[in-house]
Amino acid sequence: MTMLDSLFGLIPAASTGQQWVARDLQLVNWGGYDGHHRVRLASTATLLSGGSGSGKSTLMDAYIALLMPHTTPFNGASNGGVVGRPRGKDQRNILSYARGKVDESRTEDGTRQRVLRGDGHDTWSAIAMTWADQSGTQLTAVRAWYVPSAARTLEDVVAVRATVDGPFDARDLEGPAAQRLARHAVTEAGLTCYDTDREFTARLHSTLGIGAAGDGSKAVGLLGRIQAGQQITTVDALYKAMVLEDPDTFATADAVVEQFDKLTGTRDQMITARQQVKALEPIREHRAALEAARERVGVIEAVGSFDDGTSPAALWRHGRRLGLLRAVEADLHGRHQQAGQTSRETAARVTAARAELDGVKETLWASGGDRLATAQRELTAVRARQEEVVRARGRLDEVLAVLGATVDDEAGLAALAEQARAALADPGAKERAFAGLFDAMSLSKEAKADLAALEVERAAVLRRHDNIPGDLHAARAALAQAAGLTPEELPFVAELVEVRTEHEPWRDAFNLALGGFATLLLIDAAHVRAFRAAIDAVPTARRIRFQGVPTGLRDDVGVDAHTLPGRLDYRQGPFTGWLRSELAERFAYVCVDTPGELAQHAKALTRSGQVSEGNRGAHGGQGRANVLGFTNARRLAHLDEQVARAQRRVAQAEEQVEAARAGHDRYEVVRRAHEALVATSWDQVDVAGVEAERTRWEQVVQDVTAGNPEVTRLQERAAELEVTIQTLTEDLGRTKGLAQSLGDDWSATTDAVDTAQRALDDAQDAGTALAPDQQAYLDTLLAGTDDVGTDDAGTVAPAADPVEALAAFDAVVARAGDLLRADRQAAQQTVAAARDALRRTFETFVERWPDPNLGTDPDASYPDFVRILTELEVSGLHELEAEWRKSLLRLSGNDLTDLHNALARSVREIKERIRPVNDILADLPFSDDDHRLRIDARDTQSAVVARFRKELRDLREVLSTQATDAERERRYLRMAKVVDRIRRSSPDYADLVDVRRHVRLSAEKVDLDGNHVALYDHIGEKSGGESQELVAFIVGAALRYQLGDAGAARPRYAPVFLDEALIKADARFTGRAVGAWRGLGFQLVIGAPNDKFSALEPHVDLKYVVLKDASGRSRTKPVAGLPGTEGPA
């Protein structure tokens, strides 16, 4: 493409399109630019250079404040690490620029800003920029702010947004500023005001041609990023951030989610309908139970009471009982006659049996039967006595086994009994048995107590790291609590020292030598007075000695290794310095091996604990418990040995207790044996004597029966007749009694029949009738009368046992009142339970699905809920299920297909979007005239995305087929998992839906024939100059695209501000980057530090140096360029 150098910069020769360039930038009271300043801009490239903090970025920020939204931060190039909201209190903002903030200083009330203006009085600020096209048309945009002295936020400021078709001098706002920038005053100055930023930016975008199809926000956002010089590391990130907008897949995914949520709503409605049907299904059953129970209560109240002779209940009872009584009357009459006949027959049989027995006895006595009877009687008695003697002998043998003795005759038993009496008379035997057991148990108890005490002591020692006795610990704890101190602030001397390992044999000697000093309680001398006052009322069982000592003394007191202090280790703490000094002064005992060496030293100590101080000395006390040390391993070992010995003592004592208990038990057994032996006589255990007597009587019986066999027969016949007479006599008595009882019962039953008939007649005369439902109810309730049958006419028929039937009926009727009351109560409870169940069901329904038109009364609201249930069962639920199926098919047929297609289509569109940018780049020499830059795209779809798209296809096919409810529910859950992944809140959302991530973009250097020469992927891999040129080409082409001029010969909006840009290369590469921007038709305004001036100076047409004086005020000074460009105007 042939380029021409015109007033408006390098433009294509064939271009006749409109282009706006910035003519000048005016500042009034903006940052360090106090008063009015005008900066004229070259139509090609302008350089603003200066030292750090001179005000270059302030000029750049003025352009941001004028053209860009409030979300664009100030000073983005220099302060990329700032935090907080853009233009907030932690960043540069309108207020700080309007007041000209210099710095901050600390005061008594906090921090205070030092400003150039507006400190205690109102101020104002304004920014204006004028653009012009090649036809001479001009447009000026103005932003101004009136800042009251009390303003703290932007809401406290009067803001002006205005434009004018032509030039404008910002100093003309001084008059309106005196009126607080009132709308009418600004309008009178020739400006057109806008109420909102939206209206203001829309005017600028439409007039200046910023953005394609009226969307200038993306172009302005890109201009802001370009100005800030934000770091982008890859070509891929650069292109995606600056060229590609959000793909259609975002909207398509949102549509799928929305449709699925509607499907979920239909499903929820269906589930709700099912839940409502399930919740209301029991009400019909409850209602039926309620009505049945109410009917039963009505019948119970109608039948009345059995005590009321004229009630239906009494009529039913009389009718039933009359039939039963007549059956009993007939049964008793027949049984009474039969009993009389049986009685007479039995009496005749008894008389005949007695006559026969008398004849048998006369014959028997005549034949010697009296001697046989005597022998048999004696034999029976002897056999019974023999059993008792055998059992007694067995008990005697058990006693003899305990005593280890045997007895064969009466004399031996008498001798043993005499010995037993003597043993029982000995009073000392029992005392000895009890004394042995008591002594053994006492020893066991004492041993267990000693063991428990040692275990308690060991547990207490285990919790500590010292050897101080427990009573001293308890006393110290009580004093420390009273004084508000911790035990660690009140150490014992013994807790602060430890015998060195190599001098362990001297521990007992050191323990004796230190004596009471070891248990001295140390306290900070500063606390002594308060400590004494606090503990005065505290009682302790163990007396505590304490001493206030200075703390924090230097721990550098020298001690001799041959003396007691030199053979100790000291625990570091506030008391260590004093303690070392005290021990060195008072207990500097030289450790000697023999008593003969004691006199050689002023103070000396032997291994046995004897001390000498001149002519004085001390000895003894060995065996005293050790208290020294801030470790207790030695004491724990000693306690373990004591515990082991105590455990052995306990085991031995238990063995002694068991032996003593066994001895005591033996004494009791022997004593009981002696008592049994004394109470036994020989005739009680003479088994041989009893056996001899039985043999003698058996011989007598044999002698009598062997000589006369007829005696035996007669004797047997007499025995049989005696049994027969006894049996018949008993039967006769029972029969007579039965006949008398049946006669009495028959008479009483006859009277009862008459009484029942009269009662039945009275009830019928009173007009009482028994309804069929009442009869059925009473028959069912009093089921115990079912043994009484009824014939076809309904009259009572006699059962198999009328008496039992009558008794059963009377038993049931006797409790009929209780049965009626119980049944009435049960029916009433059923009514209450059914009403309560209905109420709970209604309340639960209304609570889960509120409806102001539904009540919860079991009777009044029942029809409404039955209607709801019927509607749900008949139509509502089916319609929802049909809608559910329809929605499921619709989601599969449309939305999932659209999403799948959109994913593929958007990738193609990204690749197609590269074409216009590549068309722009194809006409621009890159690196040299023989090469060009080209953007290349390749697919980078991951396995996760591939599986997701496959799941979309599979799910779409599955959803299009018929399914059962269970399968449909499973499909819904499967679909829910897919849809949840494309929700904006999903962690997979960007990877799956943002198709920009499915494509990797890179740049490549090609020759004029399009052949590949070099790859540009990571910008950071190139040198500073190469990266500048690469970014300029790509970003410039992207800006042309965003401005909507990709197909035009040059951009309609030319200005591009670059803050801290093009500073990473030498003049040659910088020139190529500037040439790239200008070749794309852009007007450059570059801010750079002084040290980069030489690299940029050859490639710009207008140069300024930004200066700042000692007061913090900035100004611009032109170096070369247009005439009349001095800073302050």
Automatic annotation (TrEMBL):
Q: What is this protein called?
A: Uncharacterized protein YPO0396
Q: Please tell me the species this chain comes from.
A: Cellulomonas oligotrophica
Q: Does the keyword Coiled coil apply?
A: yes
What does UniProt list as this organism's lineage? Answer: Bacteria, Bacillati, Actinomycetota, Actinomycetes, Micrococcales
Q: Which residues form a coiled coil?
A: 636-663
Per UniProt, the keywords (alphabetical) are:
Coiled coil
